[in-house]
Specification:
This protein is α+β, with helices and mostly antiparallel strands and 137 residues long. The chain is built from three helices and eight strands; from the N terminus they run H-E-E-H-E-E-H-E-E-E-E.
Amino acid sequence: MEKSEKLGFVQSPVGRFLELDDTPEKNAKLTVAFLGQGVGADYATGVMLEYKRRRDWIAQGMIHDALVSSLPKTWTPEEVYAFGKFMECETPRLPGFTCPVKMEVGPNWGTMYELEKQEDKIMMKTKDGWVPAKWEW
């Protein structure tokens, strides 16, 4: 924070920068947001490039620091989970940096369920709690 205050800007590891020309309180909020969401977005962009390079897949969309994908309904929970876990890969854009992923699956934006691995089983969180992942949509 002190460095950003002295310089009058904050810079991300990939070189993007944001000028800080407001009150110290506002600049502090901007710095934290820029480094948190901004670096998350840089990382997600790097992962999108790695998906293209390694798997010849292009993301359907990116919202802030999240990637959106449409996958075949025939994929098993294990295939979907492995696809999503790829987002935790290290990229040339931010060497040495990885980020944990929170996965959600569903038939549409209005109906999404968290997906995670628990004791070697792929589970999804429903209104009834965590259950073995299975979709019928």
